[in-house]
């Protein structure tokens, strides 16, 4: 019996009004592919290719690639209500290296977003670098000046502010997960005041054991539908061992790869989730009854493997129920917990990194081909593909761009894509915005 591939329609007959930037690709359109075929783990679905009997690419592909002018790919018609009638995707900043990577903290007072670069190699002729590698702490102004958005590198705020990664808003400040370097600079949770430039280290160890390489952070700010005072809020953060296994700038792990909850006023800390290979992004649902954690264990554990492509590891978002402390209870004896771990979503494109949510509870994950969007039940609604205009070595196949993290801002969604920063103007509004 011949397998007949169903080619994705480029136009959905029922949803064409003002939707020229949306590409409709329902699940049924890619349910069956003529065999034999293959696909790279880190490639987009549209890079699937036919192979011959020996497994070599034939040069043909089962799916037409969405055009660059239609980067909003709807898997479900529900995606249209998320992006709106006229979604727009724009590159608002560029760099010659990977300056747009992680964090993404919106500060309403200044209308700025703080973010971090990827790990960069220090040049031998520049004396300001204390270690062989570094990561910049950057900010961008969202005050549009005739279509231009200005960004700049923030001078290193303190000697402990080494290799910053994930971040979030906390009590008017930027709360950062700092990876540190070897044993010289421990991984830390540090606040940065955007108005004064002052920093404060809140945490840098677990009962004397150094953290691995802190990755991302989120703050539990609500309980039972009520905003909690800052003094009762808990900081949740992830601590994978990427600094040792993959990026090789930290000592061997002194702790398992785990997720922690930390209460800054008392210093109380506890492990709230384990059993994850590489806990990475973390975020709460709008009502803060659910915690989402991404596991990017798909990336290799082998220190000798600098370019892993093996796909049996998790590229998964897990959901947990949040058990909140009783109102007015002692945080040293009644901390929050995470229970009822379950698989929320698996990304077809490598692994989801940073996670954000909108006001309707939809979950956005930064993936290797852009941003994937799931509803609160874990159903994939659509994707925002990045880099469709970037050519590759393959004729007619774009190089594409991934997204390590993202942040909702007034009027849209900022996506960090290494040498580019994208702004998607969509209908959805970000939850948990300050």
Please describe the structure with a list of short key phrases separated by commas or semicolons:
single chain; mainly beta; 4-stranded antiparallel β-sheet; disordered N terminus; 434 residues; 6-stranded mixed β-sheet
Describe this structure in words.
- By secondary structure, the protein is mostly beta strands.
- The protein is 2% helix and 36% strand.
- It has helices at residues 78-83, 242-245, and strands spanning 22-24, 37-38, 49-50, 72-74, 88-94, 102-107, 112-116, 120-121, 133-134, 137-141, 151-154, 164-170, 173-178, 188-192, 199-203, 217-220, 222-223, 226-227, 234-239, 258-263, 268-273, 279-284, 290-295, 316-323, 337-346, 355-357, 363-367, 370-374, 380-385, 405-409, 412-417, 420-425.
- It has a six-stranded mixed sheet with strand order 1-4-29-28-27-26.
- A hairpin with a 5-residue loop joins strand 28 and strand 29 (380-385).
- It is globular.
- The termini are far apart.
- Mean pLDDT is 91; it is low at 1-17.
């Amino acid at each position: 019996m011949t397998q007949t591939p169903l080619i994705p329609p480029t136009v959905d007959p029922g949803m064409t009004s003002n939707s020229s930037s949306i590409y409709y690709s329902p699940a049924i359109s890619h349910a069956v592919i003529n065999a034999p075929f293959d696909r790279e783990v880190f490639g987009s679905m549209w890079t699937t290719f036919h192979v011959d009997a020996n497994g070599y690419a034939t040069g043909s592909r089962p799916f037409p690639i969405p055009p660059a002018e239609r980067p909003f790919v709807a898997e479900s018609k529900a995606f249209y209500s998320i992006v709106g009638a006229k979604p727009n995707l724009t590159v608002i900043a560029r760099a010659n290296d990977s300056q747009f990577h992680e964090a993404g903290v919106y500060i309403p007072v200044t209308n700025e977003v703080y973010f971090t670069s990827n790990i960069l190699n220090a040049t031998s002729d520049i004396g300001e670098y204390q270690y062989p590698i570094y990561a910049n702490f950057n900010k961008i102004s969202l005050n549009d000046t005739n279509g231009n958005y200005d960004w700049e590198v923030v001078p290193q705020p303190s000697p402990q502010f080494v290799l910053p990664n994930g971040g979030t808003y906390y009590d008017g400040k930027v709360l950062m997960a700092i990876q540190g370097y070897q044993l010289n600079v421990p991984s830390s949770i540090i606040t940065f005041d955007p108005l004064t430039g002052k920093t404060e280290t809140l945490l840098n160890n677990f009962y004397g054991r150094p953290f691995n390489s802190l990755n991302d952070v989120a703050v539990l700010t609500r309980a039972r539908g009520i905003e909690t005072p800052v003094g009762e809020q808990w900081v949740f953060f992830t601590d994978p061992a990427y600094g040792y296994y993959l990026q090789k700038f930290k000592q061997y792990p002194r702790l398992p790869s785990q997720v922690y909850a930390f209460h800054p006023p008392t210093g109380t800390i506890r492990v709230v989730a384990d059993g994850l290979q590489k806990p990475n992004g973390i975020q709460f649902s709008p009502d803060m009854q659910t915690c989402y954690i991404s596991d990017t264990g798909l990336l290799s554990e082998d220190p000798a493997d600098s370019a892993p492509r093996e796909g049996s590891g998790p590229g998964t978002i897990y959901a947990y129920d949040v058990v909140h402390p009783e109102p007015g209870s002692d945080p040293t004896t009644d901390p929050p917990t995470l229970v009822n771990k379950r698989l929320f979503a698996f990304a077809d494109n490598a692994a989801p990194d940073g996670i954000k949510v909108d006001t309707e509870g939809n979950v956005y994950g930064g993936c290797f081909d852009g941003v994937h969007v799931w509803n609160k039940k874990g159903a994939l609604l659509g994707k925002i593909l990045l880099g469709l205009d970037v050519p590759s070595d393959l004729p007619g196949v774009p190089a594409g761009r991934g997204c390590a993290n993202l942040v909702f801002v007034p009027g849209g969604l900022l996506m960090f894509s290494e040498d580019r920063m994208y702004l998607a103007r969509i209908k959805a509004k970000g939850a948990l915005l300050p």
